[in-house]
Amino acid sequence: MRIVVPAGGIGGARFLRGLKAALGTDASTGTDQATDHQITVIGNTGDDITLFGLRICPDLDTVMYTLGGGINEEQGWGRTDETFAVKEELAAYGMKPTWFGLGDRDTATHIVRAQMIAAGYPLSAITEALCDRWKPGVRLLPMTDDQVETHVVVEDEQGRRALHFQEWWIKHRAALPAREIIGLGADDARPAPGVLRAIRDADVVLLPPSNPVVSVGSILGIPGIREALVDKTVVGVSPIIGGAPVRGMADACLTAIGVETAAGAVAEHLGADLLDGWLVDEADADTKVDGIEVRSRPLYMSDPRTTEDLARAALDLALELRGDGER
To answer: Are 238 and 216 in contact (CB under 8 A)?
Structure first.
């Protein structure tokens, strides 16, 4: 079976771990995926940022660390057994920003990436090289090799200005009301090598409960990706339960684009042309969306078993809707 998963950070990574378990692979062994199943992950790079001369790709790294056994499980991001000596030394030199916490182990990844960028390698080749160490058991592709960054237009007592998404999200905790969310460079970007072919060859596409605006939305914003996906059977998992985000501050992002923080509203935003099926939590069991098959089940990924069950439910619905062939 060939499965494509456009994914953001924590929610996407944990869903992928559940999907691997549902397909009978074991992320803890570090071995490659089973030969009869192929999972291709299209990773969001809109959150990427350059700090201290290093190119940081949070969502790609979160997927890689989670599936490769190196993630800080409590946080859901960053490395396990992390230390912060480099961060402390940078602060001692007065280097800014101080709001982004680079860990020592994590910094090693960014140094490798920076050296490969300087040598002229594209992000897709760099990501493949990094995955050679972690062996996540999936094919991890960035959504594009081109530089795309999500910026947020805010307006407060300092006036109207644009912030990098990471500054708005981490430093300000998305508390500054967003007037607009912009993917700088997205309009001119091209899908990374292998992305469109993976979609074309996919049996099904699964959208994990990632941020619909700045994770899944960023991926869909790369010209050619959404157009390729609408020809496939696509099942998504709602990142909203009972009118609130499962994790993080996706409600602030939805408000910025004028979408209600509700499971049905997110599905309508993604569109019936894209989605065939949509899993919502039992708290949203009365959700109905024209043109989309909506099913309710527990969505909280509270432990490995429930996460595996959720991934299996999404896959089962996709295969059911796919039937004997693509629509």
So the answer is: no
